[in-house]
Amino acid sequence: MKPAFRVLITFVVVVVAYYAILWVPFALIPLKGQWWIGSLVSLLCAIGVGRYVWVKSEAVPDRLATSVAYGALVTGGVGFSAGFFGPLIFNPSANQGPLLGIFITGPLGFLLGGIGGFVCWLIQERKARKETI
Questions:
Q1: Distance CA 37, CA 80 (A)
Q2: Which stretch of DSSP H or E encloses residue 26?
């Protein structure tokens, strides 16, 4: 996999993991003014997830299924996170804001990411065919 794409995927996964771990479990645990504990645990977990993604994305085979799966999961994760956490940040009083990520932006991001992964695979296949001729 190309290094720029690996860096982009790792960055997105680290940011999403950090905020998901910070907001979901630590919103339910009262830390009584010691907010740094939640931030530290979330940062350590996000670094671990980022390292895992970095190592695993090095030897990704260039097959159709992998390309579609990576595109769908990354774009779906970003769409879900933006739709779920965005309304919580920009309009905290809206009680149905997170449903946007669950029912609209997450599934749409998943579908569009899968289509984008398929298109990227087609482009790579055409380049590979031209180089062998």
A1: 26
A2: none
H or E element that contains 82: helix 64-90
0.70 cut: is pTM over it?
Answer: no
**Residue of 52, 44, 48, 67 lying closest to 120 (CA atoms):** 67
31-61: b (≥16 Cβ within 10 Å) or e: eeeeeeebeeebbebbeebbeebeeebeeee
pLDDT score at 2: 75
Number of H helices, E strands in the chain: 5, 0
Nearest-CA neighbor of 69 among 56, 82, 81?
Answer: 56
105 neighbors 81 (Cβ within 8 angstroms): no
Q: DSSP letters of 85-108? A: HHHHHH-TT-TTTTHHIIIIIHHH
Looking at residue 67, its amino acid is S
Q: pLDDT-based confidence at 61, cuts 50/70/90?
A: low
Cα-flanking dihedrals φ and ψ of residue 43, to 5°? -65, -45
